[in-house]
Amino acid sequence: MTDQETKDHLISRLPRLIGSGVDYNDAISVINNMSEVSDWSKGWEETGRRHENRAEIAFKAGNLETAGEAFFRAAISFHTGQAGNVENPSEKLRVQTLQREAYLKAMQYLQPPSERISITFEGIEFPGNLRFPLNFNGHSLPCVLLNAGADSTKEEFFTLENEFLRRGLATCAYDGPGQGMTWQKMKLRPDFESPVGAVLDYLESRPELNKDKFGIWGRSMGGYAAPRVAAHDERIKACIALGGYFDMFTFWDDSSDTLLDILEFSFGAKSRSQAREISRDFTLTGSAEKISCPVLVVHSDKDEICPLSEAERTAATIGKNAELIVYKGGNHCCDNMPALVRPMMADWMANKLLN
Length: 355
Description:
Elements: H1 3-12, H2 14-19, H3 24-32, H4 39-60, H5 64-82, H6 89-106, E1 114-121, E2 124-131, E3 141-147, H7 158-166, E4 170-174, H8 193-204, E5 209-219, H9 221-232, E6 236-242, H10 257-267, H11 272-278, E7 295-300, H12 308-318, E8 322-327, H13 338-354
Parallel strand pairs: 3-4, 3-5, 5-6, 6-7, 7-8
Antiparallel strand pairs: 1-2, 2-4
Helix pairs in contact: 3-4, 4-5, 5-6, 8-9, 10-11
C-alpha cells in the first residue's frame, strides 16, 4: 500500500473505533501524524498515555467521574494500538498490559461501574467484566453475555454494554481462549461452548442474577460462538449473532491476508496451512440444528470480511427459531450504522429476557 492507501484504509476503520469509544479527534490526529505504518501503534500509545495522565490529575483533584472516563479513554487507545499486531507477541502483550491496567483503574468510576471477575476453566483463569444497571440493588436480573471477535477484547464493549444496561439488563463481557491476554494461556478453540459454560457456572452463583434469564451476543468470530453456545447450553434463552459465520473454512481461501494472519495467530498455528486445517473445526454444522431458543442473526450485504451467505446459512439451518435481519450498505458487523443496529439488538434482547 502507498502511504495514502494506508491512511485511507485506517480511516475506513473509524466507524468501529468510534463505536468502541475512541474519540474521533484522537483517531484523526493519530492518522494525520503518521509517516509510516509503525506510527499507528506509537500514536495510540502516546494518546493513551495522555488520557492516563489526564485521569491521574482528575483523580487527585477528586473528580472521580472524569478520572474514570479518562482511564477508559486510555484503555481503548492502548487497545486500538495493539489490535492487529500479530507479528510481535511480546510487544502486543506489553500494550495489552497497559490496556488492562488502565481499565482496572476506570472500572469503579464508570457509570454504571464495572466489576472484574475471574473464570476458572481447564486449569486456567480468564477475566470478565460484570456490570449492573444504575441504581440496581435487588436480585433476579437477566444478564447478557458478550462474545468478542478473534482479535478483540472485552474492554471494546463498554459503549455496547450501556445499550443493554439502559434497558435493565446486566452484562458480562470476557476474554475467553485466544482472546486478549488469555491467548497467553490458551489459544482460540472451536468449542466455545466449553469456556462460556464456565462463565455461566460463575454467573449462576451470583444472587443478583436470574439463572433462567441468560442471553448471549457475539460479533464476528463471536457471532459464530454465540449460536454455538446456544446450541449446547440450554441456560441460554436468547441469542444474537452479529456479522458471524456458519463455517469458517468455506470462505478461508477468499479471505484477506490480514484476517488470515490474525486467525493463524489466534489459533497458535505454526503455519498458514496448519491454520487452514484448524479452521475446518469452526463450524455450526451439527450445532445450529439443535438450537431451541430464539436467535437474531444480523448481517449486512456489504460485509467485506464475512459474506452474507454465511448468515443466511446460519438462519436457514436454525430454522423457525431464527430471525435474519440484513442491513443494506452496512460494513462488517454493521459498524457504520450503530444508531440503527445497536438499539435494535438491545431492544430485541430486552424483549426476550424481560418479558
